[in-house]
Amino acid sequence: MGRDLGLDGVVEHFTLDPGELALLRNKTGATRLGFTAMLKFLLFKGRFPRGRFELPDDAVDHLARQAKAPAGDIGFYDFTGRTAKAHRKEIRKATGFRICTVADQKALAAWLAVHIAQEERRTEQVRTQLLAHCRTERIEPPTAERVARVVDSGIRQADERLISTAAARLQAEPAAALEALLAPADDEDPNEAAKPADAGEEAQEPDVDVLSEIKASPGNASLATMISEIAKLKAVRAIGLPSGLFAGIHPKVVSGWRARAAVESPSHLRDHPRPVRLVLLAALVHQRERELTDTLVDLLNSIVHKINARAEKKLTEEFAKRYKEIRNKGALLNRIAEVSLEAPRELVEDAIYPVFGGTSGIADPLHGYKSKRGGYARDKQRVFKASYTGHYRTGLIKLLRVLDFRSNNNDHRPVLDGLELILAHADAKTTYYPPGTHVRLEKVVKAEWREFAQDTDPKGKTRIVRLVYECCVLQALRDCLRCKEIWVTGADRWRNPDEDLPQDFDAKRDENYAKLDLPHQALEYTEAVRCEMREELDKLHTALPKLPWLEISEKHLGGAIKLTPLEPVPEPKNLRRLKKYIEGRWGTTPLIEFLKEAVLRTGVLTELTGVGTRSGLDPAVLAERLLLCTYGYGTNSGLRAVASGDHPHTEEDIRYTARRYLTPTGLKAMAVAIANATFAARQETIWGQGTTTVASDSTHFAAWDRNIFTEWHSRYRRSQGVLVYWNIEKGRMVIHSKILTCSASEVAAAIEGVMRHGTAMNVAGNYVDSHGQSEIGFGVTKLLGYQLLPRIKQINKAKLYRPGPTNGTDPYSGLAPAMTRPIKWDLIEQNYDMLVRYATAIRVGTASTEAILRRFTRNASHPVYQAMLELGRAQKTIFMCQYLRDRELQREINSGLNVVEGWNDVNDVIFFGKSGELSSNHRDQHELAIGSLHVLQAALVYINTLMIQDALAEPEWADVLTPEDRRGLNPCSPPT
Fold first, then answer.
1. Rounded Cα distance, 253 and 117, in Å
2. Among 659, 662, 612, residue whose Cα is nearest residue 156
3. Of 21, 113, 579, 931, which cross-links 157 as Cys (Cβ 3.0–4.6 Å)?
4. How confident is the model over 551-587, as pLDDT tens digits?
């Protein structure tokens, strides 16, 4: 039976109007009810039902009451018989629907090519749009096979049109340069050229090597990687693609072309028609140019940080060594006092020096004394300069020459002037800049570097030390890049921050404000926040004497707020028994069977479409290979391991399928579809009402480190690796996952998960730990319309802001020890429109959330950053008042975050291969592994949910589970 629609859906789609009731005048019994069902289903879905199984029960009941026929009569109606055929003819005449003809199919394919496939290339999404259009045009869709043909035809026509458009824009010189990337060697066998090229064959083709180098991923943050990436960027720029080559073509389409060029061998690319070949290569080169530019900026930031971190590490080691050498300094001083009293008339050289072991022993305490007076900072600067000039300078100067740095803020012009000065004198051999050279120190040379950067020459004049000044400029440049006050031409993530904002914001101002449910007037908005702030402070101040778990006082040394830990909740009593029952009924089920069952029930493999426009593989064979690919990546056992199983697919077949079909976007769509199927299948009597909150946290995965995104971080001391940030709802379903570097913003990742999860869930709240919250995070989530619910570390030191001046009498005297200054509402009001612009950019996705939030880092100085901080402080105060006052909210947040922590244990079981280490240096392989892991998680939760529901439907489990059992019910608990 079809899933119930609910009262609203039934009334909207299955209510008969007077004209439709008139059609029933000559019909009775099952015929009458079957006719009404066919009529309303056609108007609802745009096609006739294939049988009783497609009709929702509540819709049948509703139709039966209107038709005055028993609902059970629908079972006697033959949906494939002669009567049904006559009814379909009558319904078509009454509604205007018609059977899809060959001419209609051609017209539909042409419509798809113009209106849908110009942007969307995923087969399932194009098919959905096609069926919706058929319903609008009153055309009954053809059979599933013909629908698939229409979809393929529409996508192929759109692709051909766009390729022709792009190819026509290519001039002769860049076209020849693109062809040269594929030119075979003179001595190459033509028959061999038609075969897929392996590494050895590519080594014999110098021109093909350029293409492979362009495709290659960067290594770790080092001088060699920097030189290699600069060479790649120069090679890409030398091709000379016109700037407007892909103007008017959707980025998704360009990304699809790039994916095709990336997975095909040079010999296969040569087999394409010339326009197709040129456009595929141009798309690859176009996107790689932006990626290489981003990579070089990442390398610049990483290497400057690396030089600084190594300087600190080296000095720390030196100080530790020095301390060990003079750790008995106190005893030495006591011995000096004794010797001085015993022989007051002796010479110091004869009496004191022997205590230290001679003259050399005096130097160590003296060195320690000097180190307390600024020596550490000077030594760090010295080590930084030595590392820069002795190793990294050559590569960094080359990097500065190939990148074009810009700024929209004149306050940072000194840094850009400093870059120009560096390049102008990069090849000089002098210690100082020439006399008369204008060297800008403000906002470039920090106060602690001034003494080191300035020197007095033999003539007594103050001069600027050239190499020290270069160190200062690079550090200032990194600070400005990280907050996008300085940006880079031709980059993507590091592009002009104005391009991150929606360009049509002014034209759609009313719509943008309405989507965020925000008033147009800044005063109206700030007054609403101020009133909410006052209300929550009043509630906390009034309730404080009655809250035994909370104390706010100045007497606490660690902070004004003292919050007692939560009391333990009762343990579930029947869940172990339920688990044993499920084990006995279904046994121990292999994980791949969970994936297979989820795929069969949901049909999600249609989300994995090939990078080409058509496929010649048998669907059943393709499905088996895709299951093996997903399992191999998701368990980290690898494609070679799954290829050794008992099946007819070779490792080469599986790898080919993975290259052509497995993408992070497709895997995400699979996980979303399984999540939606889980939400639809859940029984409210068991799981309760659907939640609107998710919990977010990160998991550290060890990874190979010969790449730029694997990092070591002090929080994860065991090894270098990457982070995966999860957004998980109460029922243990992961709705979003994202791979991050260890130093990336978890605040941005949490927001990204809420805004881009893509499931049917409506998220209104987000549980995060301390790393997932900040005052900027509170401000952004307030504008986006959902609540940030963090578990704040060191909440005892947190401060509550005031909604306004006290004017003599403090209305919150009981909270005074934890309170601080008033919120600067005028700052929010002055920048309100820009705040809404940034929130809209995150909502519509004009750039990644991380790229947008770079504008709101500590190094930023623009007023919008300060305004977002003030708004975040106001919202954080509102939240803290609620959190401190409400014990249930504390328990809810703690419980939600425990869900994420529980998933980490499950990940260890699923992702068991290679000890859980991501054994690749390629970012795309990491994304495939984590995307496949996400799919396996979703499949596990989906099937376990169904198993638990089937088990609890048995009479012996009626009324057995207690509230504590239902609270602890976990769809990850049955055996896998």
1. 9
2. 612
3. 113
4. 998 877 778 999 999 988 888 888 889 999 998 998 8
The C-alpha torsion from 43 through 47 and 51 to 52, rounded to 10°, is: -20
Please give the Cα distance from 337 to 834 (Å, whole number): 69
What DSSP string runs through 945-963? HHHHHHHHTSGGGTTT--H
**Residue with token string 């809420």:** 754
Which residue is listed with tokens 């009783």? 52
* pLDDT, tens only, 15-42: 999 888 888 888 888 899 999 999 999 9
As a whole number of angstroms, the distance between CA 757 and CA 849 comes to 13
Contact (Cβ atoms closer than 8 angstroms) between residue 318 and residue 324 = no
Q: What is the DSSP letter of 455?
A: E
- Strand positions, DSSP E, 741-833: 765-768, 787-790, 800-802, 819-822
d(CA 143, CA 221): 55
Amino acid (1-letter code) at residue 257: W
Mean pLDDT over the full length of the chain: 88
**Residue 422, amino acid:** I
Residue type, 907: N
- For residue 902, CA distances in Å to 580, 750, 824, 909 come to 20, 18, 41, 12
Question: From CA 711, how far away is CA 722, in angstroms rounded?
Answer: 7
Mean pLDDT for the stretch of residues 267-283: 93
Distance between CA atoms of residues 863 and 682, nearest Å: 48
Q: For residue 767, which of 798, 746, 742 has the smallest C-alpha distance?
A: 746
Task: Give 800's strand partners.
Answer: 819
Calpha distance 513→519 (Å, rounded): 7
Q: For the chain, first and last CA: distance in Å?
A: 29
Supply the DSSP string of 531-575, one letter for each residue.
HHHHHHHHHHHHHGGG-TTEEE-TT-TT-SEEEPPPPPPPPPSSH
Residue 860 structure tokens? 């930023």
